[in-house]
Inverse folding.
């Protein structure tokens, strides 16, 4: 009797270390990643991934760089940019030092973690909604094509995935700041989740 096929997985790789000063808010800021770190991550990821995988990546250049490096090591691997995999948009906070953002603004965000728009940008409810839709599509693609899916993305997207994979009542459920996942892959690292 043939073995049952392993359930499909979602690989979430975080871009390599960005070329930005430590302590800077850089959600949607389009900064490049460090080239040697990107090449190293691509080598390790290419060796770890299964033979067949669907690749989607955030449109930010730090993610596109890793996708391109991976394609160089895996000829025939098609990559597609997906805006739903972008980091949170921090509006006017982008490019500023976190320490320069008014404490009252940070407190306002913490008090209404789901709906507050940091810097006038995107609220967490919007981000969760778009990541939720991307996750639904990944599940469908993995089942239809019988292969794993790879996202090259950001720490915020990884935390959204954790929240959505928990017993959360759905992407629109309110989130308190103290409930939000703290862990995310380090730059140039990845995690692997079942696509069930």
């Amino acid at each position: 009797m043939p073995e049952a096929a392993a359930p499909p997985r979602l690989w979430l790789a975080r871009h390599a270390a960005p070329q930005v000063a430590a302590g800077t808010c850089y959600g949607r800021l389009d900064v490049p990643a460090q080239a040697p770190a990107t090449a190293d991550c691509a080598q390790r990821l290419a060796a770890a991934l299964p033979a067949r995988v669907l690749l989607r990546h955030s449109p930010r250049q730090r993610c596109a760089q890793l996708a391109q490096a991976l394609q160089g090591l895996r000829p025939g691997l098609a990559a597609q940019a997906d805006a739903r995999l972008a980091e949170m948009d921090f509006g006017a906070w982008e490019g500023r030092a976190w320490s320069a953002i008014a404490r009252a603004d940070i407190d306002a965000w913490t008090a209404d973690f789901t709906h507050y728009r940091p810097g006038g940008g995107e609220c967490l409810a919007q981000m969760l909604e778009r990541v939720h839709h991307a996750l639904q599509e990944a599940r469908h693609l993995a089942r239809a094509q019988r292969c794993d899916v790879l996202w090259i993305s950001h720490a915020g997207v990884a935390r959204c995935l954790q929240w959505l994979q928990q017993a959360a009542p759905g992407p629109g459920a309110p989130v308190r700041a103290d409930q939000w996942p703290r862990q995310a892959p380090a730059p140039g690292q990845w995690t692997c989740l079942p696509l069930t």
